[in-house]
Amino acid sequence: MDYQSLSRTVSHALRHEPWLYELELDDAGWVPLTALLAALRAERKEWRDLAVADLIEMIARSEKKRHEIDGDCIRAFYGHSLPGKLSKQRSAPPAWLYHGTSPEAAALIRQSGLLPMERQYVHLSVDTETAMQVGGRKAGAPVLLKVDAAAAHAAGTAFYHGNEMVWLADEVPAEFILPTAW
């Protein structure tokens, strides 16, 4: 089983275009496992015998915890680009969070803060290594931004727990992004 390919397809189905797989996500992004399995089995003939155990193994092998199973349902933790926001529970973030980006985007962020762009939420990392890895997908020499999440939260910025490595925010005003990060 190619679990990486399976994970990419599951992410696409649960984060971006569920309608292509004839899936209906609820307000929190959950879909029945039986519906996802039926869609995946129809997607590729090598997945015709796909089982819940394969999805559990896919999640276990993933370095980045992108999906979760609860009972008879599955969802993607974060990264949705669907129209309309999935409901998330507000949470108090760690004191500091990080965001890796391109130098060009950093110049815009300095003016307008961090905005979700084509996603539902701004993605923030709990450590610099993860943020730089994410930023590396956008630029050969990414810029690391340090976010004073505690101060932003105290001022009313909404944060949501994505998983153990990722936090989400509706947006982060520029005043909470340290000038030394520029």
TrEMBL record:
The keyword NAD applies. It is an enzyme of class 2 (transferase). It comes from the Bacteria. Its EC number is 2.7.1.-. One of its GO terms (molecular function) is tRNA 2'-phosphotransferase activity. Keywords: NAD, Transferase. The keyword Transferase applies. This is Probable RNA 2'-phosphotransferase. It comes from Chromobacterium rhizoryzae.
